[in-house]
Protein 1
Amino acid sequence: MTWTQATGARALAALGAALLLAGAGGAPARAADRCPGAETTLALLACLGRRLQESDRALATLLDGVAAAARSELEDATFLPVWQRFSDDLLSGSDPRRQLRAFQRERRQICRYINSMSLRGSGFGVFVLSCELDLSEALLKQIRN
């Protein structure tokens, strides 16, 4: 199977749906666990936003490391076609920062979509940020392993 943008979107949607089903309705509880000192929705949103920024910084560092390792292990003649294939398939390019931005864009889209199918109403921001953190943590775990 060729990895395409559509394949990636379907995989991300399946992961998001699995996360939703695993903790159906548990996003606010998980959010409170992640930010135990937050006593208001506004404080919880601010805390989750900071946690997501920290996660994105960790992802950026890991993606930079993956690109550096690939460059050091592959000759330029091999490296460029491999990364070009990723660029073509994922429509994000070989630049780790572009890859991160593409992931962030898809992550936000799928979390909003899942929320629109399930919760509707209050808690939208908390749910979306919690979902984004779940997906980021899953990606961090995958890259580290």
Protein 2
Amino acid sequence: MLFLLGFLLLMLGFAMIVLGRVPVTKTWTIPARVSRSAGGIFVGFLPVVFLVRFLVQALGWEEHVNPVVIHWMLFVLCLLAGGGWILVAGRPATSPRPRPAGDQPAPFAGDPISPASSAAAREPTFSPLSSPSSERPRPQERNPFDFS
């Protein structure tokens, strides 16, 4: 029974890793990063079960510890970790809250700039020190790829 559930969890995790974004309902889609993280948790369940089974047998704890209990605890832990990650990090973003109507104006709601002052601000200003006649003309560079 546990192997079958582990295999289903493995397939679910693999699908979540490959697909990325997973639509759950019409309004809720699990983002790709969250889906792939939870898929990694689900895929990691079966290898962890095999590792724990090997360690219990290698250490000789089979007489003292029931491996089935450990496997079910790992199953529940992986299911809660992956599902919790999806529910906490994958929830849809909330809409921005409306701003309460207060006495304070918006921070940039001051007097608008007049078009005349904005045009004057955009005019280029030239320094009297830099004149085109004072600059030495640059010699023409030969193009190294011109073979004419």
